[in-house]
Amino acid sequence: MTMYAGRRVLALFFAILLLAGCATSTDNRSSSSSGTFPVAPEIAPNVEFWTKVYGVWSRNQAALYDDEYLGVVYEVIDLTASAGGDTAYRRDLIDARRAALQSRLRNVERKVASGESLSGADKALYKQLTAAGGSAAIVGAADRVRVQRGIREKFRGGLEVSGRYDDAFREIFRARGLPEDLAYLPHVESSFQLNARSGVGAGGVWQFMPATGRLYMHVGHAVDERYDPIIAAKGAAQYLANAHDRLGAWPLAVTSYNHGVGGMQRAKAIYGDDFGAIARRYKGPAFGYSSRNFYAQFLAAREVAGNPRKYFPEGVAYERPVKTDRLVLRHSLPAPQVASHYGVSVDRLADLNPAWRTAARSGSAPLPAGTTVWLPAGSTQRVASHPAPMPVMIAKAEPKAQPARPAVAAAKPQPVKVAASAAKPQAVKVAATGSSAKAVKVAAKAPAAQPAKVAAAKKPEVKHHVVQPNETLYRVAVRYEISVDELKRINRLPANDNTIRPGQRLRVTI
Questions:
Q1: Beta strands 372-376 and 324-329: pairing type?
Q2: Are residues 306 and 207 part of one domain?
Q3: Assign residue 343 a region: left if phi > 0, alpha if psi is -120 to 50, beta otherwise?
Q4: How many other CB atoms are found less than 10 A from the CB of residue 191?
Q5: Same domain for 291 and 159?
Q6: Which tens digits make up the pLDDT trace of 82-131?
Q7: How many domains does the chain divide into?
Q8: Is 407 inside a domain boundary?
Q9: Terminal alpha carbon distance of the chain
Q10: Between the CA of residue 399 and those of 160, 286, 325, 361, 404, what are the distances in Å?
Q11: Number of helices followed by number of strands (H, E) in the chain
């Protein structure tokens, strides 16, 4: 058996053990088979490495490792002695250890190239590298030394926050027929930091870039729904469904979340669905360290988050799901007006609506029409059942649009009860000025014991909408209370294309 074949057997053995561990754990919440998210032998060491980063190594530990062969971990530096807070001391210690290791590796590379004999310590380094990548792995090894701090505490904190959303995320993915374990992706993207923002502008727990976010949600000055975990999860589900339709395999689709569908299509054109070969040998534009490791990080996050008692025996205090009512604004309105209508403080509403930016919170910019607003649970029922007619009907309550899980549980809104004293109801009058809806005055005269009668609705006429600059299919669909898929169907638009252009005429009635 050759050395290379031996490495492949060992890697395959590790992959089998890893999958078996996931399948037998009493903690694992996965409903996806191992075939859905396979571990190729080539990436098994990477998965093991990231599993240690997430669930084993603490913030007081720093690993020096090879960034191409992640199974090569030279040293795990203990930073506990400087745990008192001396950041400069820690940085200097890590830099000194890294520089010493790089000097040793360059020396080994020089000796191997010149045929000199190796010391015992040199042989240990050489053996570690060649076991992972063959004799050529020693070339440039010094330049591949990378430092990774453990984030066990941070991951555990993210796991606790995930308690608010995990059930809702899983329901969203199940509703689209997708593997529910995709709910673990935010652990990789943001560690469930609600206001996470990357250096390149990606935002929220799902880390959407602004341009991509606009395809699935509202991204603007007053409201940026990338920061609403539930709405962004629906966008992520739509993106991943489309990516899987185009790429045909979950390792490729998951990696496309980092690298893009186009980039993964180019990789697939060369290596097909062999993700191990893609991760090991593909050298496409921008397919660097982050993209090569993204799927392995997802698998590691799935392993650690799915087995909390194994990795966090001290316990995980999951946060309770936030119970809310959901409504969608028919008209553009200031947040203070919404808060006043439902008898809730603006600060309380802002806490429930992380998509609201400063302009919306302060009331200096209105919430756009079509904006989702989360209210304290029971708000819609309380207002709807108020004994006196409400002064303004600002929104349509949509509890059925929520995930069925407790994270966004909603009470079914009751119809507004109207006091009346005559047999025949009068017409409902609606007046609107500027961007806010004014009073909806209901003048009805019917016996007090009788509910207000509603005239039979006529068959709606076919209506069309002319696309405005910066509008998306999502915004148009919300405005006319239909789904994006239905909007595409009645306009015969491609299923995997969300592109529309200003001036385009869309049919908006079914």
A1: antiparallel
A2: yes
A3: left
A4: 20
A5: yes
A6: 655 678 889 999 999 999 999 999 999 999 999 999 999 999 999 999 99
A7: 4
A8: yes
A9: 66
A10: 26, 42, 6, 24, 9
A11: 20, 10
